[in-house]
């Protein structure tokens, strides 16, 4: 059984502020950690999906400067990542409602999706303008529009991600889900880490994976 790991990458701003830097410097460093963690996961045979929370439907509330910075960073970062995805056979996929982004950014996202569509290794899903509530409402509306009966299976398939989450990690010390993969995490094992995302490492992920292996997942049975 291959694993789906989902991560709420929190703590970038605090990491930067602790060093007397601007918050956005934390996002830059955080993006480097994304590459490290993705490469690690792509080399693990038992992990087939990594879903990373990069921008929530609530993050528009941040100052314009920070939102603009994140959009620019995402655009340049995706272009830079393309050869790395191809090298590791990683398929990139965006989840969330990207129609709210500029045409330029949407085109970059679609381009990287298209150019990695043939990759058969890890799927790296970036949650962009993603919120679980928004995702569920979009899914229900699409079922109604197509006259499909709403049940657990059909709703599952209509969501941006259908594969249930096995391991949900939140860095940055907060113990909440912040509207992330609520449906898919119904039976996820949840790991909260105090490490700020820019300091998160493959070592820490390996220790979480080790702990996960010790858990007896009952799914309501015995
Ligand atoms: C998470 O780090 C990254 C995004 C939400 C884009 P934060 O920016 O939330 O960092 P903190 O939580 O303020 O430290
Ligand atoms: C969650 O972090 C969103 C992302 C990591 C992209 P936030 O920093 O936005 O969450 P809250 O506001 O602390 O709940
Ligand atoms: Mg935060």
Bound molecules: 3-methylbut-3-enyl trihydrogen diphosphate, magnesium ion
The description of the largest β-sheet is: 6 strands, parallel
- Unreliable stretches: none
As a percent range, the share of strand residues is 15-25%
The appropriate CATH architecture is 3-Layer(aba) Sandwich
Q: Give the spatial strand order of the biggest sheet.
A: 3-4-2-1-5-6
CATH class: Alpha Beta
CATH topology: Undecaprenyl pyrophosphate synthetase
User: How would you state the average pLDDT, rounded?
Assistant: 98
- Ends apart, CA distance between termini: 20 Å
Question: Which shape, going by the Cα principal axes?
Answer: globular
Taken together, the total number of domains comes to 1
Describe the overall structure.
The chain is an alpha/beta fold. The chain has a single domain, classed as Undecaprenyl pyrophosphate synthetase (3-Layer(aba) Sandwich). Helix content is 44%, strand content 17%. The chain contains seven helices and six strands. It has a six-stranded parallel sheet with strand order 3-4-2-1-5-6, sandwiched between helices. Helix 3 packs parallel to helix 4. The radius of gyration is 17 Å and the shape is globular.
What can be said about this structure in brief?
By secondary structure, this protein is of the alpha/beta class. The protein contains 7 helices and 6 strands. The chain has helices at residues 12-18, 23-42, 64-88, 103-115, 132-145, 152-158, 202-213; strands spanning 3-8, 47-56, 91-95, 123-130, 167-170, 189-192.
């Amino acid at each position: 059984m291959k694993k789906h790991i989902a991560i709420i990458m929190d703590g970038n701003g605090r990491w930067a502020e602790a060093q007397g830097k601007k918050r956005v410097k934390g996002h830059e460093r955080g993006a480097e950690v994304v590459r490290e963690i993705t490469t690690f996961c792509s080399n693990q045979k038992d992990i087939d999906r990594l879903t990373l929370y990069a921008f929530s439907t609530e993050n528009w509330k941040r100052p314009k400067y920070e939102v603009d910075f994140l959009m620019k960073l995402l655009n340049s970062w995706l272009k830079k990542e393309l050869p790395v995805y191809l090298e590791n056979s990683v398929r990139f996929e965006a989840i969330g409602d990207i129609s709210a982004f500029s045409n330029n950014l949407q085109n970059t996202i679609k381009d990287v999706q298209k150019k990695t569509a043939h990759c058969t290794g890890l799927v790296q899903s970036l949650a962009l303008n993603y919120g679980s509530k928004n995702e569920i409402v979009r899914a229900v509306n699409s079922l109604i529009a197509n006259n499909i009966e709403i049940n657990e299976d059909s709703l599952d398939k209509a969501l941006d991600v259908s594969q249930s989450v096995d391991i949900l990690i939140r860095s940055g010390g907060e113990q909440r889900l912040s509207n992330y993969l609520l449906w898919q995490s119904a039976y996820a094992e949840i790991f909260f880490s105090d490490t700020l995302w820019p300091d998160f490492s493959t070592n820490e992920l390996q220790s979480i994976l080790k702990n996960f292996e010790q858990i007896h997942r009952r799914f309501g049975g015995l």
